[in-house]
UniProtKB/TrEMBL annotation, chain A:
It comes from the Eukaryota. This is Ras-related protein Rab-22A. PROSITE patterns: RAB, RAS. It comes from Silurus meridionalis (Southern catfish). InterPro entries: P-loop_NTPase (IPR027417), Small_GTP-bd (IPR005225), Small_GTPase (IPR001806).
TrEMBL record, chain B:
InterPro entries: FUZ/MON1/HPS1_longin_1, FUZ/MON1/HPS1_longin_2, FUZ/MON1/HPS1_longin_3, Mon1. It comes from Silurus meridionalis (Southern catfish). This is Vacuolar fusion protein MON1 homolog. Belongs to the MON1/SAND family. Residues 1-20 have a biased composition (Polar residues).
Length: 195, 559
């Protein structure tokens, strides 16, 4: 069975539950008192999809404003981005729209975008109607699910949907190697200048 | 912070009234916290008396407490002795028996309000919902506030910044009032509190403390707080932000980082490394430390600058790029900030972290990119930090970690580290010696060396948080006297009710010892000779003697 490496990054406002989603997906755990991510956290998980193994290389980025400028470092070269908002915070949905814009402008051209409305267990304090989010997601051809990292709702599903939507490999895979070369050559010089 | 030598502003009572008329509510709030009885605005320690009568009762109070012990002050003698006569002057020991009630007073102080103590160590996370009008809020041993020049709150150790905005406004008013007279406010003293002000670029930091620490010590702690903020944002970006927008709310950039500052202030209280400005190494056999160093030296990639192994909040080993340390070395203060950062947030326990980090003493305006990962999940006691100057180096640096992990596994190093621990003072084999802190200056290659210190575990009677803090307060007081800028001391022999302490500084070391209360002076001096011999014998185990270096072959880019 072949192994494919898929780089996925999580973006979104601070406190919407990006790390909780990753934690639920990778370790099947939930910590209500999780600390805010610092910089970005890298984790991997391999799942079987049809006759392939998909190894997700997950970049869980920090949502705080001070790390905002670093995001390109993490979404560059990503096969997919999961943009997370909190269904109980209207503002986080607005931030999400900015992320979508940024990805369209600066992200990889064929990046698969998935939108996750997290904390769907807190229906009583909902501020973002599911239909609005769904309509928006459809308008940008993004995957859309409402998730709950706490109750493990739709967490694995969102990654499965990403697996489905990733275009099939045309040539034989050499995943990580290809990724590395690109980074070493093209981007390094450009980055130096701004540093 | 520059000191101004201009004449002291006289703050007459009428001036104060003008101030309070504008902001009468908040002034009263601040006054509750700190009854201002004297103000210092120069390092000459001349006080500005708002009402000189206020001062007298306190001074008299101190005098009256001297009756239970003899005070050999001998200040001229001490000043002379401080002009570094080398270790030979040990024969002529100038003994200062400080029977002043002050130290014991502190003990009483700590007993009187034990609640804030336990709170600081355990409940830091919930500090922001504390009621700032409550008596318990006022009772905290040490408050720290950070505000912007526009008076906008940035951080408070206890209570939410919003609730304290008027208090911070008054603090800023005080700062700018003194500033308008071409002067700088440095500190305000009252019977119970010392308030220290420090301006760092566009930020103002204020410490309100009832710990009887010296102004210099409190100032150093504020520098740690400032540097921890710089560590996250860099000085250049803080300056840029406030140049662009004077009333910017810096909390926007610090959200989620409050815990790191809370953690820092708790460490500052409980960890002597901060006031000693030295690094605490985990004692391990030197052959083992060397093998760890070699592992780090072999796992390198271009642009890697520092490889650091930390276990149980103590340094195991650190390897550094040759090129970089030629003109700058890693300061203990920077290492403290790093260790606090990884300890303060459980965020580092999940996966591999890649984050920009600034080392303020190394270069306050630039970021390093730090790879941080624990080597022993889920226990998370052994942490690897790899610092690179290349923000794209994650995968290359992660590969280094893979190599380090493999090599350590092959040597079964993690099991060995798990067994390593700080030692007991009984191993020294000196009866009556309860605890000590030893900071050598005679390490080889001293210039490029990290300042280190060694210290045994705090054992009974210093095993509770209250007692630990009491001993640390005694040490801090000794340290403050030794390093007093106007009258530094070389040796202090202090007999207190519950212990006897001896602090001694030579050109080769700085030593603080704590004995049982009934020890005699000659006994203590004998004990110290034995202790020094023991440290000498064990130094390969206690300290990193020759910090390893490596060269990352390709032209390491320095930023």
């Amino acid at each position: 069975m072949s192994l494919r490496e898929l780089k996925v990054c999580l973006l979104g406002d601070t406190g919407v539950g990006k790390s909780s989603i990753v934690c639920r997906f990778v370790e099947d755990n939930f910590d209500p008192n999780i600390n805010p991510t610092i910089g970005a956290s890298f984790m991997t998980k391999t799942v079987q999809y049809q006759n392939e193994h998909h190894k997700f290389l997950i970049w869980d980025t920090a949502g705080q404003e001070r790390f905002r400028a670093l995001a390109p470092m993490y979404y560059r070269g990503s096969a997919a981005a999961i943009i997370v908002y909190d269904i109980t915070k209207e503002e986080s949905f607005l931030t999400l729209k900015n992320w979508v814009k940024e990805l369209h402008q600066h992200g990889p051209p064929n990046i698969v975008v998935a939108i996750a409305g997290n904390k769907c267990d807190l229906t009583d304090s909902r501020e973002v109607p599911e239909k609005d989010a769904k309509d928006y997601a459809d308008s940008i051809h993004a995957i859309f699910v409402e998730t709950s990292a706490k109750n493990a709702i739709n967490i694995n599903e969102i990654f499965t949907e990403i697996s489905q939507k990733i275009p099939l490999l045309v040539t034989s895979d050499s995943g990580l190697k290809g990724l590395k070369l690109r980074r070493d050559q093209s981007d390094l010089t450009r980055e130096r200048a701004c540093c | 912070m520059e000191t101004t030598d201009s004449p002291i502003t006289s703050l007459t009572p009428s001036d104060q009234n003008v101030l309070s008329e504008n902001d009468i509510d908040s002034i009263s709030e601040l006054e509750d916290l700190l009854p201002p009885s004297k103000m210092e605005s120069s390092n000459e320690s001349k006080a500005i008396d708002t009402s000189s009568d206020n001062l007298n009762p306190k001074d008299v109070h101190v005098e009256s407490q001297q009756d239970d012990a003899v005070v050999f002050d001998g200040s001229e003698k001490l000043v002379n002795a401080s002009k570094d006569n080398g270790p030979e002057d040990t024969g002529e020991i100038v003994v200062t028996m400080l029977g002043r009630g002050k130290l014991d007073e502190q003990g009483v102080c700590a007993n009187r309000i034990p609640s804030p103590l336990s709170e600081t160590s355990l409940e830091a996370s919930s500090h922001w919902d504390e009621d700032v009008t409550a008596e318990s809020w006022r009772q905290h041993r040490k408050h720290v506030f950070v505000l912007s020049e526009a008076g906008k709150p940035i951080y408070s150790r206890y209570g939410s910044e919003e609730a304290l905005s008027s208090t911070m406004g008054v603090m800023m008013a005080l700062v700018s009032f003194i500033q308008s007279g071409d002067n700088v406010i440095r500190s305000v003293y009252s019977d119970e509190h010392t308030v220290v002000f420090m301006q760092q670029g566009p930020l103002v930091l204020v410490s309100v403390s009832s710990t009887h620490q010296s102004e210099q010590q409190l100032r150093n702690e504020l520098i740690y707080v400032y540097n921890q903020i710089v560590c996250m944002l860099t000085q250049a970006s803080i300056t840029r932000i406030f140049e662009h927008k004077k009333n910017y709310d810096l909390r926007r950039l610090l959200t989620g980082s409050e815990k790191i500052l809370d953690g820092l202030l708790n460490l500052v209280d409980f960890d002597p490394s901060f006031f000693l400005s030295a690094v605490h190494c985990l004692p391990v056999a030197s052959s083992f430390r060397d093998s760890l160093s070699q592992i780090l030296q072999k796992a390198i990639t271009p642009n890697l600058v520092f490889s650091i192994l930390v276990a149980k909040n103590q340094l195991l080993t650190i390897a550094q790029e040759k090129m970089v340390i030629e003109d700058a070395k890693l300061d203990p203060a920077d290492l403290h900030l790093l260790i606090n950062l990884i300890g303060a947030s459980s965020a580092f326990q999940a996966g591999e972290i890649w984050t920009p980090i600034c080392l303020p003493s190394f270069n306050p305006d630039c970021y390093f990119y730090a790879y941080i990962s624990y080597l022993d999940p889920p226990e998370c006691t052994v942490c690897l930090l790899l610092l690179s100057t290349d923000n794209e180096a994650f995968y290359a640096v992660a590969e280094c970690k893979r190599k380090i992990e493999e090599a350590m596994l092959a040597q079964n190093a993690l099991t060995y580290i798990a067994k390593a621990q700080s030692y007991s003072v009984s191993q020294v084999g000196v009866s009556d010696l309860r605890h000590f802190m030893y900071k050598p200056f005679d390490v080889p290659d001293n210039h490029h060396q990290l300042t280190q210190f060694t210290s045994p575990e705090m054992e009974a009677p210093y095993d509770s948080d209250e007692e630990k803090m009491r001993l640390l307060d005694l040490y801090r007081d000794m340290h403050g006297r030794i390093h007093n800028t106007s009258r530094p001391l070389k040796l202090i022999y202090h007999v207190a009710a519950r212990e006897t302490l001896l602090a001694w500084v030579t050109s080769k070391f700085e030593l603080y010892t704590c004995f049982s209360p009934l020890v005699t002076k000659s006994c203590a001096i004998n004990a110290i000779t034995k202790l020094l011999r023991w440290v000498k014998k064990e130094e390969d185990r206690l300290f990193i003697r020759y910090p390893p270096k490596y060269s990352t072959t390709s032209n390491a880019s320095k930023s």
